[in-house]
Structures are given as C-alpha cells and as structure tokens.
Design goal:
The chain has 439 residues and is α+β, with helices and mostly antiparallel strands. The protein is 16% helix and 34% strand. The chain has four domains: 1-62, no CATH class; 72-161, Nuclear Transport Factor 2, Chain: A; 166-269, Nuclear Transport Factor 2, Chain: A, CATH 3.10.450.350; 282-395, Distorted Sandwich (Glucose Permease (Domain IIA)). The longest helix is centred in the C-terminal third of the chain and has 19 residues, at 413-431.
Length: 439
C-alpha cells in the first residue's frame, strides 16, 4: 500500500447487477480478516442500486519481534533412543552443552539404567537457553524411572516408581503366513501374540492348524507414561477364527482371586493338559510304532512327538505337577519327568538346560518354564522329545482326549456374565468394522 502503510480497506458494495454483488460478497466473506466472518441479511424490497462507497484507511502498529535465542527460560526436550546410541550422543541431540555432558557422565557413571538404553524408549532432558542440563528422565524398565536433577556443580541420580496410565486397546489381524507375521503387521506386541497362542492352545494346535485367512481379534491392556508405551499387560478378551470356526476367550477373576480364561458361556478354556509344551515350532517326528532311528540306524517305535526348535527355546510344563526326575538318562539326554494328577505323567528329553532351582519334588504349574530345547543324548539336531504317559505307558498327545478344568463356580456366574457381556461388545465392535485397531 502507498507510503508503506498497512491499512484495512472496507467498503460497501455498489452492485451493478445482483450476480456481480453476490460474487464480491462471497469473495470478501471468505478472506481471513483477523478471523472474523460477517453475515449479512437484506430485507425484501430494499433499494440496493444506489449505495455509496466509503474508503477507510487505518494505520496499525506492528508488535516488535524478539528473537527466540534471546528468550530466557527452561525447556524440556525429548529424543527416542536409536540402535547404537550412547548417553553422550543422546545428550548431544538433546541440546546439552559439552561441559554438562562431561559432568553428567562423571556423576552418573555407576547408574545401571544408563547402561541399559532400550531402542525405541524416550529420554527427556530439561535445559536452559544456554544448554545447561537441569534435569533428565528415562524409564529404563516397566517399574522404574531414572530421575536426574542438577544440584550445585553436580547431579543427583535416583530411581522412582513410574506413574502409569492404563488403556484398553482392541486390534484385529488376518493370518497370511504365521501368527507373529500377522501380529507384526497389526503392530500387536509379541507378548500379546504369545498370550493368544497360550489361551487357545488347548483348542488350536498352532504348529499344524493355522491356515491362511484365519482371523483374530484381541482386547488387551497397555500401560503408558506421558503418551509413551511402557509395557503391555494381560489379554482381556480374544476371538480366533480358525478354519471357519470361532473360538472366544474372556478373562475373569473371581472374588477369591482365582482367574482364568473362559468361553462366553463360562466353560474353562484351560485343559488339564496343554496340547504342546512349546509355543511355536514344527513337528519333525510323530508318534508311531515304526520309525527308522536317525542315530541307531534301525527301525523301532517312536513313543513320543519330536518338536524341532532352535537350541534355547523355552519348554513349558503342560500341566500342574511335581518333578519326578531331572537329570541325564540314556538316549533322552537331559530329561525332566513330571508326575501329574492321577496316573498321568509327561517327559521332556534332549534338553540343553533345566530351569533354575528345579529339583526332584519341585512343584510346577501349567505353563511354567522348566527347561530349554537342546540336542543332548541320541539326537542329530536341536529338538524336544515329548512324551505323554498314562500309568507309565506312552500315548499319542496329539490325538488323545484331554480332560478339562473346572468351569465358573455357580456363586460367581452373575459376576462373570457382566464381565463377559462388556468384553463381548468390544470384540463385536471391532469385528463389525473395517478398522484394524481401536483405542
């Protein structure tokens, strides 16, 4: 505008025809004049042909702008830990000056948390405008937050409990190749995937039964701190559609703190015995009366099931029981035998290691880790040899009917129904949408 003046031009329209005035009215009302929008109304039979036009110019004073570098104050910065990061490189990215980086490293050199930098976690640092470090926060575990505060010429380092916010997440996925492949694609944590496999392990053999196109929906707990995911919790409800058949699970804890997963009708999903002692693997040799032994080079009965898996893979107790034997035994190599209720027992051979403090007479619960896959004894490669015995006689664990556990106690059925109804609504909500996840 003339003379470098800043002005506002306001005028009443002098329309020569209605279409022309309407276009100007629309154009002007769409301009962002200080965020104000004007609405106009014209009464019927109002004369609009001879409206005078007035031009008004008003000078405005612009506020002075202060450069950001001159603003005093303290600032919080945050950076995500990357692979290969050290605390020094992190502090540099957090705009901490070199002098305070050196001083901090000297004061916090004995901190275990700072030696455990987990990729993906967030480190927050408070600095002033000159880059002096005033404080630092880093959640190094699901329970502990490292807190650093500037004190004099040094820093005070302490561990504090992490304040967590609980959120319930709902996600669904479709099997293309494997369960873990599907959960990775849907950004479902591995911990939740393992729980899904464990929950449905009595009805679905995840070694043999999965098919392309199978679908599942899961409702689970997640725990956050300031928007950062710290850990995942328990699966609250899940549905797995395997080969067109739907299986549902609802988590319930009664007033006596007994908990488990049940069908929507209250039937306990937990069998007295799991179908498999491994979460994921492949069957390399089944139960048969005639198999050519790869080491002995002769035909003989194979009275168990061999699960091929990498050395170190976790081996679970398939049921509650007592350790009847733990140690080396002939071709079994490192062997564990568990005695269960009644005449049932199970055996786990070729192990590379036993669980810590496991000994004869130890009590174990279903799902407890009792050892690790290996290739001790007569074995040509790492695998688990698993036997299911009734009165000392080996039976095929893949085909024998497994006894079930107890259902919901009658006095808690009303409580269970309320929980089941609420969680079923969540499952149905995601099932009936095209979304992959809901918060």
């Amino acid at each position: 505008m003339q003379n470098n003046k800043i002005g506002i031009l306001t005028q009443k329209l002098f329309p020569q025809e209605r279409k022309f005035s309407l276009r100007w009215l629309v154009a002007l009302s769409s301009l962002p004049l200080f965020g104000m929008v004007a609405a106009f109304g014209i009464a019927p039979e109002t004369e609009t042909r001879r409206i005078p036009v007035h031009t008004v110019i008003e000078n405005l004073q612009l506020p002075s702008i202060t450069p950001a570098s001159n603003i005093a104050g303290n600032f919080w910065h945050e950076e995500k830990i990357q692979r290969g990061d050290t605390i020094s490189t992190l502090l540099d990215r957090l705009n901490v000056n070199d002098e305070d980086i050196t001083g901090f490293l000297q004061n916090a050199q004995n901190s275990k948390s700072l030696r455990l930098l987990i990729p993906g976690r967030i480190v927050r640092a408070q600095t002033d405008s000159e880059g002096n470090l005033l404080g630092l926060q880093y959640i190094s575990s699901s329970e502990t937050m490292l807190k650093v505060e500037k004190q004099g010429d040094g820093f005070k380092v302490s561990d504090q409990a992490v304040p967590l916010e609980t959120r319930v997440l709902m996600k669904s996925a479709e099997i293309r190749n494997s369960l873990f492949g599907a959960t990775d694609a849907a950004n479902i944590p591995d911990n939740i995937a393992m729980q899904i496999a464990d929950i449905f392990s009595s009805d679905i053999d995840f070694h043999r039964d999965l098919q392309k196109g199978d679908k599942f929906t899961v409702v689970y707990e997640s725990f956050y701190n300031k928007g950062e995911l710290i850990k995942t919790g328990r699966v609250l409800a899940a549905e797995f559609i395997n080969n067109g058949k739907s299986y549902r699970a609802i988590y319930f804890q009664d007033r006596e703190s007994r908990s488990g997963y049940y069908t929507p009708e209250g039937k306990n999903l937990r069998k007295a015995f799991l179908r498999s002692p491994l979460e994921f693997s492949r069957i390399t040799s089944g139960f048969t009366n005639a198999r050519f032994h790869p080491v002995l080079k002769e035909w003989r009965a194979h009275r168990g099931v061999d699960y091929g898996a990498p050395t170190g893979t976790r081996v679970k107790a398939v049921s509650d029981g007592t350790v009847a034997f733990v140690g080396k035994q002939n071709g079994y190599g490192n062997l564990i035998v568990l005695q269960h209720q009644g005449s049932f027992s199970t055996a786990y051979g070729h192990l590379s290691a036993f669980a810590k403090n496991l000994h004869k007479g130890s009590k174990v619960s279903q799902g407890d880790i009792i050892g690790r896959v290996g290739m001790t004894g007569l074995a040509t490669g790492p695998h688990l040899h698993y036997e299911f015995r009734i009165a000392g006689v080996q039976r095929n664990p893949l085909t024998i009917a497994m006894p079930t556990a107890f259902p919901i106690a009658s006095q808690y059925k009303a409580d269970f129904s309320k929980v089941a109804e609420s969680l079923a609504i969540r499952l149905n909500l995601l099932k009936n949408t095209n979304l992959a996840s809901l918060d």
